[in-house]
Specification:
Blueprint (H helix, E strand, L loop, with lengths): L4 H4 L25 E3 L8 E2 L5 E8 L8 E4 L12 H8 L12 E5 L2 E5 L16 H18 L6 E8 L4 E9 H11 L1 E11 L8 E10 L5 H11 L6
Parallel strand pairs: 5-9, 6-7
Antiparallel strand pairs: 1-3, 2-3, 3-4, 5-6, 7-8, 9-10
C-alpha cells in the first residue's frame, strides 16, 4: 500500500482503494471484538469494486490485528451492543474536554473557515469515543449558533474545513441558523469559553482578531452517542 489511512479518510481522496490487492497483516479470530473508526467520507470505505470495508481502529484482545481493513460483510462481522460498564465511563466525559483542541477560526465574505493542525482527524479527541472530527463539527455549530444569536449571520454560513494545517481539504459544510438553533436546543449549551475568530478586512485592510465567549454544546451522557451518529450523517456539500 502506497497510501496512508489518513489519505483514504479524506473526502477528496483520489487514490483508488484496491484493498483486495494488499497483503494480509493479521487475523481476527471468531468472537474477537473490535472498534471501527469511520472515515470522514462515510462509515465504510468502498473499494474499486464498490464493496464496503471497515477500518479496524482498535481491538480488545492482546496481539489481535488492528490498524487494518476488514470486509463489511455479515458473514464475517456483525455489530454488537457494547456493555454499559464500558460505554458509561466514555459517555460521561463531556465535550468540554475538547476545549484543548487547537483550531483556527475565520470569517471572510460570508464563508467560515476552520483549520486544524492534525492530519488524522479520526483520532480520539481525548481518549473517549469522540473523534477530533466530531469535536471540530461541534465547534462549527457552536460558533454558527452564537453568531446567529448576535445577528451577525443570516440565514447561515458555509464552513470550509481543512486539516493538516490547511493542507487537507475536509469539505465544505452548510449550517443554517435554523439548524444551529435546533442543535443547540437538542443538546443544550454548557459553559462559555473564550474563542478567537479572525475577520477578513478584504483586499485593502488587515485581518482583525476578535475574542468571544461562546457557549459550547452540552454533549454528555447518552447525548454523546447521538452526536456521533448525527455527525456521521452530516455530509459536506462540496469536496
Amino acid at each position: 500500500m502506497n497510501s496512508s489511512f489518513e489519505e483514504f479518510m479524506r473526502v477528496d481522496n483520489p487514490t483508488p482503494f484496491d484493498v483486495f490487492n494488499w497483503s494480509v497483516v493479521g487475523v481476527l479470530k471468531q468472537g474477537q471484538r473490535f472498534e471501527s473508526f469511520p472515515g470522514n467520507a462515510g462509515v465504510t470505505f468502498r473499494d474499486t469494486r464498490a464493496l464496503p470495508w471497515l477500518f479496524v481502529g482498535k481491538t480488545y484482545t492482546a496481539g489481535a490485528a488492528q490498524g487494518c481493513f476488514i470486509r463489511a460483510n455479515s458473514q464475517f462481522v456483525k455489530p454488537i451492543q457494547m456493555s454499559s460498564t464500558r460505554v458509561q465511563p466514555q459517555a460521561s466525559q463531556p465535550l468540554t474536554s475538547s476545549t484543548a483542541l487547537p483550531v483556527k477560526l475565520g470569517f471572510d465574505e460570508g464563508f467560515g473557515s476552520i483549520v486544524v493542525p492534525e492530519s488524522d482527524t479520526t483520532a480520539s479527541a481525548y481518549g473517549g469515543r469522540l473523534r477530533q472530527y466530531d469535536v471540530h463539527i461541534a465547534k462549527m455549530f457552536e460558533v454558527t449558533h452564537f453568531m446567529c444569536q448576535q445577528e451577525n449571520l443570516t440565514p447561515g454560513i458555509t464552513w470550509n474545513y481543512e486539516a493538516g494545517g490547511g493542507t487537507i481539504n475536509m469539505g465544505s459544510f452548510v449550517i443554517t441558523c435554523r439548524l444551529a438553533n435546533q442543535i443547540a436546543s437538542a443538546y443544550g449549551l454548557g459553559k462559555s469559553e473564550p474563542t478567537n475568530v479572525t475577520f477578513s478586512a478584504g483586499e485593502v485592510g488587515r485581518p482583525a482578531v476578535r475574542s468571544f465567549n461562546i457557549p459550547i454544546l452540552d454533549i454528555t451522557g447518552d447525548k454523546l452517542l447521538r452526536w456521533v451518529s448525527f455527525v456521521q450523517g452530516f455530509q459536506p456539500v462540496r469536496r
